[in-house]
Amino acid sequence: MLKLKNISKYFYTNKEKQIALDNINLEIQDGEIFGIVGKSGVGKSTLLKILSLQLKPDTGEYFIDNKNTLTFNTKEKTTFLRSTSFVYQNFSLLYNLTVLDNILLPLKILKVPKDVQIKRAKEMLEFVGLSHKANEYPITLSGGEAQRISIARALVTEPNILFLDEITSSLDLETSFDILDLILKIHKTFKPTIIFISHQIDAIKYLCERVMLLENGKVKRIEKISNHKLKSYTYEELLWQS
Ligand SMILES: Nc1ncnc2c1ncn2[C@@H]1O[C@H](COP(=O)(O)OP(=O)(O)OP(=O)(O)O)[C@@H](O)[C@H]1O
Ligand SMILES: [Mg+2]
Fold it and tell me: What is the model's pTM?
């Protein structure tokens, strides 16, 4: 379980204090698909960086499985970091490596035995439906395919928590829903906690079990999504009712 208590984060530009996150309180349960939605600049990615221990808050406390992260030693922090993976909007693939080598990279860094590396990478490639692309270079991939490869690379280390930052924002509506279906399949198969950031309320409604609306660094509201997984292609139905 992830628990934020009175978390604030400030940035200073030209000595001017800017409040990026303002007194955030939040609990995310293990295995939950949790959405964070809000306009550009409201603090979504900053919150994700705090949840993933990439950034320290200026006030408040962050508990992971009831342990205060302020007291984490290096080993505890490393263990947590290794149990998490990220996927971003821009895929972040290395263009001088083949698709398979991109997926192998995290396992090489973790010094996983070579035969295990290859086996797992190939399994993940199959899981995302792109085994036939193993020896291609990322330049040959469509946006949707590139995102599937980024997802395979994120999965290969068997994370407990998946942080997904705007992963469908550069894709068309139909490809976006294909990617969301893949995320649902991942959730069903591996049961990770999924934290999904988006400014697209349609994507949030389809994927998430609960959603938090951020406004100017503050929690505007947190609510359950009663009938998620409902696919709707009409923009009228997708408008956020606030
Ligand atoms: N490292 C930083 N230094 C200074 N200001 C920052 C830094 N990171 C974020 N900010 C500021 O904090 C605010 C929140 O940024 P954040 O990236 O969290 O927004 P966001 O909701 O993810 O936006 P988007 O939807 O455009 O990705 C913004 O005003 C941003 O300029
Ligand atoms: Mg962002």
Answer: 0.93
